[in-house]
Amino acid sequence: MDATYALEAQPAGVGRYSERLICELARTPEMELTLCARWPRWLRLGRRFGALGCRRCLLQEPLNIRLPGRVDLFHGLNQRLPGYRFRRQVVTLHDLFPLTGARYSTPDFQRRFSLMIADAVARADRVICVSAYTREQAVGRLGVPRERCAVVPHGVEQQPEPPSERARQRARQLAGGAPFLLSVGAIQVRKNNVAAARVAARLGGAARLVIAGGAGHGADEFFDFVRGQGLSDRVRVLGYVDEQTLNALYAEAVALLFPSLEEGFGMPVLEAMARGLPVIASNVSSIPEIAGDAAMLFHPDDIEGMAEAARRLLDDQVNRTRILTPGT
């Protein structure tokens, strides 16, 4: 398994997926794992996964050319495969936004990652797609035979560990003490953060917008909008937060606000629902598939619709309880 992305200093969605899958498979007695990583993250392999007792090696073409003969299956956990040919190869596709929108990334990023993804799916014996939406993109845009694709959705703990009171107090301090809507993920065009800020503006002083995520492609547009509209006191950008802090933010928020334009899965939607937090999200890409009927979904440009949903949650706690109760 390519453990490179599980060794990020600040693991986000792909990193957490990789880490948890590795840890679970390491508990399978009939399977022997060899964990590979690219330089320089390879140096962290022993420190992070040494207790699992897995074999470890550097994944660096054209070095360790004997690796393919030592394993029965190679799993590329993030849309890429090494240049070697293994007996069997599996690759996981998380999203295909480099292929779907010119605004979502730089031309150089689109070129490099489009080539990498196309190469991986062409050589993989099986392609794991994290949603049916991603599978349809793989079939339609990359020509992957449908029978080679397996939809394996992401998962979260059904009953996440409740945050401590100390963690919850810190979350309230980070949010500025007022009721807040939470957005999770990097600030970038694809995440439609300007729409989230517009929702916060419509709410006036009733609630803040708190964003747990760093700056990504197109973040300047968002920050310019916030400053230009005088929203700096209502929008708080926390940057990357660890899992403990994120868990506490989910516990303290009024709702998750997730107006994204393109998602291969949308992990924050699942994380919020697992914690009983209401979800206000867009009705495009994979999000309706992931949310089902357990979220309030709107067109990503429907600012007033999302703001009205937030107002109902802010003003009527009885309504919030009704939304969270199945069959009512």
Word description of this protein:
By secondary structure, this protein is of the alpha/beta class. The protein has two domains: 4-151, 3-Layer(aba) Sandwich (Rossmann fold), CATH 3.40.50; 165-323, Glycogen Phosphorylase B (Rossmann fold, 3-Layer(aba) Sandwich). Helices cover 38% and strands 15% of the residues. It has helices spanning 13-25, 45-49, 97-100, 107-123, 132-142, 165-175, 193-202, 219-228, 243-252, 267-274, 287-291, 303-315, 317-324; strands at residues 34-37, 55-58, 74-76, 89-93, 126-129, 149-151, 180-184, 208-212, 235-239, 255-258, 279-282, 296-298. Helix 11 links the parallel strand 11 and strand 12 (296-298). The termini are far apart. The mean pLDDT is 92.
